[in-house]
Amino acid sequence: NLNFHPSGQHFLQIPGPSPVPDRLLRALSYPTIDHRGPEFGALGRQVLGGIKAIFKTNSPVVIYGSSGTGAWEAALVNTLNAGDTVLMYETGHFATLWKEMAESLGLKPEFIGLSSYESWRHGVQAEMIAERLRADKAHDIKAVCVVHNETSTGVTSDIVAVRRAIDSVNHPALLFVDTISSLASADYRHDEWGVDVTVSGSQKGLMLPPGIGFNAISDRALAAHKKATLPRSYWDWTPILKANETGYWPYTPNTNLLYALSEALDMIAGEGLDNVFARHKRLGEACRVAVQAWGFEIQCLDPKVYSPVLTGVVMPEGVDADHVRKVIYQKFNLSLGAGLGKAKGKMFRIGHLGNCNELTLMAALSGCEMGLRIAGVPVNAKGARAAMDHLESSASQFGLSL
Ligand code: PLP
């Protein structure tokens, strides 16, 4: 029924797109300007410069009018040649989709990971990467691709360990990292961690609507780009980087999203990137406290790599997680993330990213707790209380007073 309008606010608690702050919505509504005029150049230079601080890089960051998937493709077609072997690690659904893309582009992905579903419950095992690269004496593997925050599971991966694994065997493969759901939510350092291409998107930590994809590019990636021969046109870094020198694009850029990006950069600078990370960490902790108090397993089995962005909530055997999500949506106007791929129906995902705070988290947890009971799932209905207690008791540790 298209006329049905549920009362109150919609709680968009999926792990991206995240709720867009009013300030950004207003920026999106500014009049579109001439993308070849002087005013635009100033905006272009500002966002192209400002975004580097978020990636923690001094290298160029290309901004595409695309979703994150486009930025995945851009990383591959700009640096590789048909038939190249790429080593990709299975952390979950998004790692799997990136692997399928590599196949469709004529690359030869080798997909490694723990056995079966275990890989969907742990982060990247860097020693497996080292082992595979050590055996590659001929250096056939041209790139290693990993997802920093696997959005389908709520598991992060240790990128420093992956870099160390590559260096430990003196392998020349490039390192590509997907930060689509971690950028501006979890600590990430393109330069310091020695990443060659960082892929990202606008609709998660940056709080923008979908529609911007990013590639942060190291000198080594640029050197590979000069020789790479996979077909590319729209994604080609060369004409974009040339036009970007003066703040422009070789085609019509998404002007209004760039207004919002400029505003988001201001908001993040105002809060301080480290404070943004601490806020996510704290909300993630409180969410996990609730899930454990309910009596459910967290999808991530390794506490060292719990995601600060989202929590995967595993339903007991025989409970359809999609049914639970549906009940919660219908009763409370609250959207949660579905289990994807191998996790379909087994779990749901609570997003706690972007423009979120204690009260948005508590709304989500309360909605879950009530919905679980309505759906008839055996649950210890003390999760929301436990999360509040945790928020209170952990406040000083985060430099807050509650
Ligand atoms: N990679 C990760 C880790 C993601 O979370 C997503 C989307 O949720 C993607 C890739 C695909 O990005 P998009 O849906 O913006 O194309």
SSE topology:
Elements lengths: L10 E3 L8 H7 L9 H18 L5 E4 L3 H10 L7 E5 L3 H12 L3 E5 L13 H10 L5 E7 L1 E2 L4 E2 L2 H10 L5 E5 L18 E5 L11 E5 L1 H9 L9 H8 L10 H17 L1 H22 L2 E2 L11 E5 L6 H12 L1 E5 L8 E5 L6 H17 L8 H11 L9
Parallel strand pairs: 1-13, 3-4, 3-5, 5-8, 8-9
Antiparallel strand pairs: 2-10, 6-7, 9-10, 11-12, 12-14, 13-14
Helix pairs in contact: 1-9, 2-9, 5-6, 10-12, 10-13, 11-12, 12-13
Protein name: Aminotransferase class V-fold PLP-dependent enzyme
Keywords: Aminotransferase, Pyridoxal phosphate, Transferase
GO molecular function, one term: transaminase activity
Overview of this structure, please?
The chain is of the alpha/beta class. The protein folds into two domains: 11-18 and 272-398, Aspartate Aminotransferase, domain 1, CATH 3.90.1150.10; 22-269, 3-Layer(aba) Sandwich (Aspartate Aminotransferase, domain 2). Helix content is 41%, strand content 15%. It is built from 13 helices and 14 strands. It has helices at residues 22-28, 38-55, 68-77, 93-104, 126-135, 159-168, 219-227, 237-244, 255-271, 273-294, 321-332, 358-374, 383-393; strands at 11-13, 61-64, 85-89, 108-112, 141-147, 149-150, 155-156, 174-178, 197-201, 213-217, 297-298, 310-314, 334-338, 347-351. The strands form three sheets. A seven-stranded mixed sheet has the order 2-10-9-8-5-3-4, with helices on both faces. A five-stranded mixed sheet has the order 1-13-14-12-11, with helices on both faces. A two-stranded antiparallel sheet has the order 6-7. A hairpin with a 4-residue loop joins strand 6 and strand 7 (155-156). Helix 5 runs parallel beside helix 6, helix 10 runs antiparallel to helix 13 (383-393) and helix 11 crosses helix 12 (358-374). Residues 16, 67-69, 94, 147, 151, 178, 180-181, 201, 210 line the site of pyridoxal-5'-phosphate (PLP). Pfam families: Aminotran_5.
